[in-house]
Amino acid sequence: MQVATKDQRLMEGSTTKPTLSFRGVNLTFSDGTDALRDINLDISQNEFVSIVGPSGCGKSTLLRVASGLEDASSGALETDHDHLGYVFQDATLLPWRTVSGNVGLLAELRKLPKPEREKKVADALELVGLDKFANYHPRRLSGGMRMRVSLARALTMDPQVFLFDEPFGALDEITRERLNDELTQLFVTRQFAALFVTHSIFEAVYLSTRVVVMSPRPGRIIAEFKIPFAYPRQPEIRFTPQFAEIAGNISEALRKELD
Question: In the chain, what are the domains?
Fold first, then answer.
């Protein structure tokens, strides 16, 4: 009997019940805007799925539906909202709280006992490499460090599902690539199911086991691409012919839909 390696499981995803599932999801806003149409998508543990598409196609709206912040007009969503992490475009840190205070906010709101909360905060800060900055305030942090705080805060939820809404979009290219590397390492360590929104095709290919392409509004899934690279990802793969070919195919799918 052939046993799949850890890298193979991460590339192929789990064969068990999906951790996040959309079934025929549609969303029309109260003003009549048709935002999402017939979204069918399954994401299992150990799958990292990125969504790319034109601005306004409903990528962030899909995350809001997944998180429960927005109700679908029809269709079904299945996920575990008790173990769901959400990282927004902005770090959304409270300036009067320290790094550890910001990271522990969600655990506080869940009224976890202080010893348990402190351990979760310490573990999360160590994972994102900010354990030496626990007593800093956000104003003393770089943009990349603030996003790490946001990521650590979400980690205290012990997420089985991780939602990312363009978390690195406002960062410079070097910082963005470094955080991409750190996120893939975290994915290998925690083995969550991830749904990641980005405008960068190169970022999507580098991070993901699959890339999903959405159409202009109303957002529909028009294509999916499996990414064959093993984890942990090596930065050099960004410069390989295979990487360029996959990115080119995704770009072509987007252009055809826009045309």
Answer: 6-80+160-258 (3.40.50.300), 92-159 (no CATH)
